What we know:
The structure is a single chain. By secondary structure, the chain is of the alpha+beta class. Helix content is 16%, strand content 18%. The strands form two sheets. The chain has a three-stranded antiparallel β-sheet. Strands 1-4 form a two-stranded antiparallel ribbon. The termini are far apart. The mean pLDDT is 80.
Amino acid sequence: MPWMVGNILKNFCARPATRPYPSVLREPYPGTRGNLAFEAQNCVFCGECERACPSAAVFLDTRWETPEASEPTWYRVFDPYSCILCGACVEACAYEALFLGGRHYAPVSRKDLDYDRVESW
């Protein structure tokens, strides 16, 4: 055990190897793509992003807002847990409704899908 004294003293005097996560956020590395962001006002629901996504993380869906509604409302649904951040949906979108932002997703305690609605098209 005496041969470990030098290593113990070095580790005792050095900075911690980990970050205190919630209080100190990690900055993204240069060249990282970041998270997928959606501009709802630019979307025309053409479905090109859905066809281009290799992991089926982006898809279009409809819902009836009320039973009396005359037509369903379109939603762009995003599953961040299936997304591989390849950017294929961004390249396929001719209307610039999707883009890769500079920030990453924060840790969550539940897996939920992200539903974005467009008011008019």
